[in-house]
Amino acid sequence: MQASTATKGRRTGQPYRVMEWLSIHRISRCGQYRGMAKRLVMLTSLLAAAIGVTILIIYHLVDEPIPPNARTDVAGILGSDDTTGYERAIEVRPFRFPRDHGPHPLFRSEWWYFTGNLQNDTGRRFGYQLTIFRFALRPGVPVRASAWATNQLFMGHFAVTDSATGHFHHAERLSRQALGLAGAQAEPFRVWIENWSIAAMDDDPNVWRLTASMNDAALQLRLHPLKPVVLQGEQGLSQKSAEAGNASYYYSLTRLASQGTLSIAGETVAVSGESWMDREWGTSALGPDQVGWDWFALQLDDGHELMFYQLRRRNGDPHPSSQGVLVDPKGSVQRLQAQELLITVHDQWRSPTGALYPAHWTLTHPPSQLQLDVRPVLANQELKVSVRYWEGAVDVRGRHRGVPVTGMGYVELTGYGTQIDERRSSRRLTPR
């Protein structure tokens, strides 16, 4: 969530966060914005280790140097440094909806995360991800009168997995909360970045509409929750490391009926299936000894859902703050602690970027007599964007209390792009 660039700017030796660097730039899509910006600059090798391409950006908000050690890895972005002036996730708080679907701008970061598995009427399988992130550039509210002034950066990721063709399509957008380019609001609920949006329906605020498009795919979905909100961690306070405040407020909708249309490769088809929504906000999460996580969101055909995130230390070992939930068909929640769920890796996949990802797992929870075999629908579901990571659709088979189960889901793997210990990874593999 990996790159460095040469120092650039008029001042040196000042604290710098990579997301603040990103915040002062915006991908220029339309010529009309050029006359509104103070300066147009071309930066080459933006996040070179993550994307390795040149993008056109607009310099507007603040003059900050770009340090040689600028980082966009997970630990760098979600670490605990430079939290002064922000609110932090310290204690249990009440959740109120729809207010908490909306933004929490006094915290440094938050995201609205949707994944799902869909089919057309012939059974053709698709997976999708639509995520919108918000990052605060600095605490407080900008004092300048410019319409471009903002202290909020939005980033969006949209991906579609097509199992029939074996293609993985993905795109990224970066924009600022200014001039209507991006933003979030609670009532009526809406979060957007340009024409990508997640919004409550006008006729029913409990039903949401997702809209996103890229060069080779477009998705419109109507989502209806089939179960109540699940508060993750301790009543919604999800601790990620030992330090107080290295946590997030975190809730999920673990099963949403999904219907709509998908346009791909020039063809538009009706699709239906089920989605998952994760919602988090906080100011810092990972400790200095952590590099990323393996996150599983699985929907089983017996009506249960399993979420588990395994946080990883720099040496590859699981962190004791790892945790999850098992949700029964009626929506009752059983918390899962780090030592209760065993994750065994059986295979790996080497990305063309060089990252080495786990690619086949067994998840075992003895207290529930649950054992699940989890395999990617496609090996290559890596997003090569500002923050390089693997996020993809998976198939699930196994047994639950002696009864065969199947299912679908999504897995997210972060921190593998630059933190690869192949010798240790090979020792952890277990053949099947």
Please name the defining characteristics of this protein.
single chain; 432 residues; mainly beta; AttH-like fold; 2 domains; 13-stranded antiparallel sheet; ten-stranded antiparallel sheet; 3 helices; globular; disordered N terminus
CATH architectural grouping of the largest domain: Beta Barrel
Tell me the CATH topology of the largest domain: AttH-like fold
Give me the strand/helix succession. HEEHEEEEEEEEEEEEEEEEEEEEEEEH
Instruction: Count the E strands.
Output: 25
- CATH secondary-structure class of the largest domain: Mainly Beta
Radius of gyration: 21 Å
Strand content: over 45%
Helix content: under 10%
Write structural notes for this entry.
It contains three helices and 25 strands. The chain is mainly β and 432 residues long. The protein has two domains: 55 residues, no CATH class; 330 residues, AttH-like fold. The strands form three sheets. Strands 3, 4, 5, 6, 7, 8, 9, 10, 11, 12, 13, 14 and 15 form a 13-stranded antiparallel beta sheet that branches.
Quick description:
This protein is mainly beta and 432 residues long.
Write the layout of secondary structure elements.
Elements: H1 18-23, E1 39-46, E2 53-59, H2 74-78, E3 109-119, E4 125-136, E5 152-162, E6 167-176, E7 182-185, E8 190-193, E9 196-201, E10 204-214, E11 217-225, E12 230-231, E13 237-239, E14 247-264, E15 267-284, E16 290-300, E17 305-313, E18 323-327, E19 333-337, E20 342-350, E21 356-365, E22 370-376, E23 382-383, E24 389-400, E25 403-413, H3 422-428
Antiparallel strand pairs: 1-2, 3-4, 3-15, 4-5, 5-6, 7-8, 8-9, 9-10, 10-11, 11-14, 12-14, 13-14, 14-15, 16-17, 16-25, 17-18, 18-19, 20-21, 21-22, 22-24, 23-24, 24-25
